[in-house]
Amino acid sequence: MSGFGLELGDDVIEVRDWVRAFARDVIRPAGAEWDEREETPWPIIQEAAKIGLYSLDFFSTQWFEESGLALPVAFEEIFWGDAGIGLSIVGTGLAAAALAANGTPEQMGEWLPQMFGTPDDVKLGAFCASEPDAGSDVGAIRTRAVYDRGDWVLDGVKTWATNGGIAEVHVVVASVDPELGTRGQATFVVPPGTPGLSMGQKFRKHGIRASHTAEVVLDGVRVPGSCLLGGKEKLDARLARVRAGERAGEQAAMRTFETTRPSVAAMAVGIARAAFEYARDYAREREQFGRRIGENQAIAFLLAEMATRVDTARLLTWRAAWMARNGKRFEQAEGSMSKLVAGETAVWVTEQAIQILGGAGYTREHPVERFHRDAKIYTIFEGTSEIQRLIIGRAVTGLPVK
């Protein structure tokens, strides 16, 4: 782990403070409204685009920052502001990561700018992997991609897609050879306006309500051969290796999730920190039986545990982000560790924040109720806690844990 440090560079600190100010002044005041509306907060996304926060340049600059900490630091601040609005701002990043992980430089140059649009004409991207019968089990993906006279034809239904159906560009994982399971899958770009792609059910959710989540229906969607990420020659060579019994490398969807886990963990850290700070401040001011409740050991000890868990989650997240940026292999599933601990920390800390506020915390008069609803998804999406434990268990034992 030589080279890993906890001191943030001046550039990272400057961006952190800039993002924190936007989260404080623009995102946080709008959180409750857009949670109640359960609509995509286009005006907030546009404000983020106008200052350069929602832009390809911002995401790529932070992604390539040498320490690897810039993106998780920025994401923590955004989600400290509000998770629903935060996910509406950064949700395109998952599609962008899938494109970057699987595409050629030419494909990235063509499609990445179209995912973001411009400050005056904001666009979104959507990554479509999960299906009604294939959530954590990506090997059960049924969406098919069939090669036909130079084009690819996609048929199937995707679900739980952030920005699904309202995105300009959809990135879709499909099976080209079902007999090979996950090793027979590939990733495709579906350009804007392509016939056959439509939005199915829009989900009404427990939390992150300002973030759009929906089904994506693919009915005879025909895309040019150039929309196969990585190209057909690379795909054919990989499939040939698999059929010959050789190693084929990482599966497309899993490659995307592995690269984004530290960033997802940082989102959860932001929610947990917001809940801790609100509960701490409440405990400093709220009086019961003639003294502030923070003077009671029961409350002070609980706040101490909350603070410790938030810092623990952040440190695991920073380690994983640094390793990913510096080409260090996750020998002990460090990416999954960060996602597991941060997600479960967010759920626990937000619940304790409600407890500290008592009955008031259970109402929508205080944001901790919303923080708790928003936190729960971090033990579910992009790999449930159970899947993270499975990955970690396999890594630490070296055994095929089932």
From TrEMBL:
Domain Acyl-CoA dehydrogenase/oxidase C-terminal: 249-396
UniProt cofactor(s): FAD
Record's keyword annotation contains Metal-binding: no
Keyword Membrane attributed: no
Every Acyl-CoA oxidase/dehydrogenase middle domain range: 126-221
Single annotated GO MF: flavin adenine dinucleotide binding
Keywords: FAD, Flavoprotein, Oxidoreductase
Lineage top rank: taxon: Bacteria
Signal peptide: none
Residue span(s) of domain Acyl-CoA dehydrogenase/oxidase N-terminal: 13-115
Family: Belongs to the acyl-CoA dehydrogenase family.
Protein name: Acyl-CoA dehydrogenase family protein
Record organism: Nonomuraea rhodomycinica
